[in-house]
Write a structure and sequence with these properties.
The protein has a nine-stranded mixed β-sheet with strand order 14-13-12-11-7-10-9-8-15. A six-stranded parallel β-sheet has the order 3-2-1-4-5-6, sandwiched between helices. It has two domains: 144 residues, NAD(P)-binding Rossmann-like Domain (Rossmann fold); 170 residues, Dihydrodipicolinate Reductase, domain 2. Strand 9 and strand 10 form a beta hairpin. The chain contains eleven helices and 15 strands. It is α/β, with parallel strands linked by helices. It binds nicotinamide-adenine-dinucleotide (NAD). The site of nicotinamide-adenine-dinucleotide has 27 residues, from loops.
Length: 382
């Protein structure tokens, strides 16, 4: 089979995580075109993807290019919808970076357009493809923890945005830190623990940083009855430097055991009782005395997602976990959280779609997401 030809829309920060994924598959696919209007980013794009890559300024030119079979959308969030609609109209399958879109009304338009055109829509929620996050999924699916009743998921980062960044505006990013990045944790929670039934949310805006919230907390009840405690802080340096805390944490407690994933450390499990024989056999007796590491594959989430997507494009068996239909539920939880914060109420899911309410009069910045010179920003971790 000839190589699948990929067009990448947007050549900013996250291209650094996507390009190596495609470059490891050069026998199966080739990135032919990248759309990037900022010429100061072109040298890096050529460095990442080779000198022969065709550069165009606007994403429509990549979508409609004769040498592009499928597109990978790495654009600001407000452009995920129009770029997906244009790709569907051109009959080209879509992989889009998270967050899928700014609200479920936009997700629904993306899903409907791709289904009507008969093209697939996949969201690169990379955590679901990451070895250590998958190791935690295996622990949960094994039943070793008994009945899960409590979750804690945290995301800590110091996101310093460039002046004029699209992400500073609520319209560009789709809200703030919750929609942009706590959706990593929400998506993982849904993958691990099933659907969310209701949410209560509080947010904190620091106007000098960005229009939307820099910090947010969500208290959730799962359909299973478990409680979940999710938080994001985009203004903390706690995750870098000597004696640092963590960037991301997932902690889960069940009636028969506990487990966690901690970025930079790995995935661990603790068993509460020795009558849990299948689990003791699986993780060893040491797991009765303290947390033991759970073996995990070496997979980088972005690269594994891309590898599975390329298999799918080639008609091979692929393990894609993040279709547009599946990931819509993640956006729904974040949107419900915003409605909770705005109304001061607990919101029960499902919620009805509402059109995006603009607050910026079209004034969305075009500068990149993050100030690249900032040493405390975890660029590839999002
Ligand atoms: N999964 C993760 O861990 C992670 C981490 C960072 C970013 N992301 C996601 O990646 C996406 C992009 O984020 P980023 O950090 O690379 O942002 P960025 O601002 O660095 O890059 C976006 C690029 O899109 C370009 N662009 C804007 N309008 C365009 C147009 N009309 N045509 C073509 N290109 C256009 C911009 O010039 C910019 O270079 C977002 O969805 C973001 O949430 C994911």
């Amino acid at each position: 089979m000839s190589k699948v030809r990929i067009g990448i829309l947007g050549g900013g920060g996250i291209l650094g995580a996507h390009a190596p994924g495609f470059q490891k598959l050069t026998d199966r696919c080739t990135v032919t075109v990248v759309a990037e209007p900022d010429p100061s980013r072109h040298a890096r794009i050529r460095q990442l993807l080779g000198p022969e890559v065709i550069l165009v300024a606007d994403y429509h030119d990549a979508i409609n290019h004769a040498e592009v079979d499928a597109v990978d959308i790495l654009l600001p969030h407000h452009l995920h919808l129009p770029a997906t609609l244009a790709a569907a109209a051109a009959g080209k399958p879509v992989l889009t970076e998270k967050v899928m879109a700014r609200n479920i009304a936009e997700c629904d338009q993306m899903i409907a357009a791709c289904e009507a055109a008969g093209v697939s829509l996949t969201v690169c929620h990379d955590r679901r493809y990451h070895g250590e996050w998958m190791a935690l999924k295996e622990v949960l699916d094994s039943g070793a923890l008994g009945e899960v009743f409590y979750w804690k998921l945290e995301h800590n980062q110091n996101v310093v945005m460039a002046e004029g960044s699209w992400a500073r505006s609520r319209d560009g990013i789709g809200g703030g830190a919750i929609m942009s990045c706590l959706t990593h944790q929400i998506d993982a929670l849904r993958w691990y623990g099933g659907e969310v039934a209701r949410v209560t949310c509080l947010t904190k805006v620091l106007p000098e940083r960005m229009e939307g919230e820099s910090a947010g907390v969500i208290a959730a009840e799962m359909a299973s009855g478990a409680l979940a405690n999710l938080s994001i802080n985009w203004f903390t340096r706690s995750h870098v430097g000597p004696n640092a805390l963590w960037y991301e944490l997932v902690q889960v407690c069940g009636t028969r055991g506990e487990a966690y994933y901690l970025s930079g450390k790995g995935t661990f499990v603790l068993l509460h009782d020795e009558t849990n024989t299948a689990a003791v056999e699986r993780y060893g007796r040491e797991a009765l005395n303290g947390f033991v590491p759970v073996p995990s594959g070496p997979w980088n989430g972005h690269e594994r997602c891309i590898a599975e997507w390329v298999k799918h494009l080639r008609g091979e068996e692929a393990h894609l976990l993040t279709s547009g239909r599946e990931v819509r539920g993640t956006v729904e939880v974040a949107e419900a959280a915003y409605r909770s914060a705005q109304r001061g109420q607990t919101i029960t899911l499902p919620i009805e779609p509402e059109p995006w309410q603009s607050t910026s009069d079209g004034a969305i910045g075009t500068a990149g997401f993050a100030a690249p010179a900032d040493p405390t920003y975890v660029v590839a971790a999002g």
